[in-house]
Write a structure and sequence with these properties.
By secondary structure, the protein is mostly helical. The protein is 49% helix and 4% strand. Strands 1-2 form a two-stranded antiparallel sheet. The longest helix is centred in the N-terminal third of the chain and has 40 residues.
Length: 288
Amino acid sequence: MVEKFKVLSAGGDSKGLNIFKSSAYKEHEQTPMAQAFWAIRWAIGVWIACAIAFVFAFVLEHIWRYGWSDATAVWTKVYFINAIKTAGMSVVAEIPDWCIRCIMHPDFACIVPFFPIIAFFTLNDDMLKKEFNPHGKKKYDEKSSREANETDVKQMGLFGGFMMVLGYFKKKPLKLPKTLSVLCLAPPGTGKTEGIVMPTIYGCPEVSMIINDPKPELDWKSSGYRSEKVGPVFIMDWGGQDEPEKGIYYPSWNPLSPGHIPFATEQRELYVDYICDVLVPDAVGSSA
């Protein structure tokens, strides 16, 4: 923790403003820290610049209205002396008079103090800050990789796929053009279900699916749609009880029913052994 605070320093053997390059931060921390640190410096810089501009705005307003003269020079000198002595409070005291001038005696000179105010809110716009933040954009090593464009996506056949929604490119779903495996790794609560699973269930009506749904959240959200648009939806709930009065029947299967056990003795014994191995697996490390 001491090392993390040390890199904020600008002297000695510290990293100074290159805080995000410090080994005190793990790789996955560096970009967010760089973004946050740049945003803090941006906000402070904009505030200072606009505050200074606001101080000078009343001087420019006075010069615009009355022109430059000995009286203007004296007024400007007194204005800056008071601003320094009062740590800027005299400038704040000018605001009510400025508001009265804008209402009672409006002229073009009155608009000058508006410029730093407009600049302050414009430069603090979130979209503008993201655009200027050099650490907020995706960066690729041109020697090894680059961001895919529309031509690349078309060549991969992802626009004409039929299964597994992998994501979206310019609001167009990207699907696999053939049967392949997809591995999606992310921490809980990061949107795997909403971003991958649900779009796949809704967006792939040509494909029959076997879905592992332990919650069963996916059943509640998608079984009605699939049953209407695609075909029958069966819910394998081993603990579910049929409710005939409501028309609810759970699919079931008895592996020991006479219709499923092979007739030949050898095949029947092998079949039963397989079932026992599944239902009663051997203990780890057992020699049996």
